[in-house]
Amino acid sequence: MNDIDAWVWWLIGAAALGIPLVVTAMPEFGMLAVGAGAAAIAAGLGTGVVVQVLVFAVVSTALIAVVRPIAARHRSQRPQLVSGVDALKGKQAVVLERVDGSGGRIKLAGEVWSARSLDTGRAFDVGQEVDVVEIEGATAIVM
Predict the structure, then answer these.
(1) Are residues 69 and 90 in the same domain?
(2) 91 is a domain residue
(3) What is the mean pLDDT of residues 75-81?
(4) Smallest Cα–Cα separation from 89: which of 41, 140, 137, 125?
(5) Domain count, the chain
(6) Among 31, 105, 112, 135, which has the minimal tally of Cβ within 10 Å of its Cβ?
């Protein structure tokens, strides 16, 4: 055991921290693994155990303090590329059959959709352009 250099132990520690990173997908383990890698570099340069532990602690803490808030901010942002029914909200459509509070038909994104008016007292005649406000199941809510 004493024949193995300290930098090898730090690399083993980094690999050991990489395993739960892959299994649990918790990025904190990766940041700790990077800290262990930095400590391995410090050990390879011939520094003492105290300096190696300090390098591990400082690098790991700095990564967690800086990277976690950035990752959390990116995780909470909505994707910029919308697809499915979310992509249809706000689009314009053409009325194919009179649309009122009880129903009708529109042509939306090249397809025929059932539709109903957002304002139940308002009706749209054939050929009028309407805006899609919401999609409820297979029905477009228009105004």
Answers:
(1) no
(2) yes
(3) 77
(4) 140
(5) 2
(6) 112
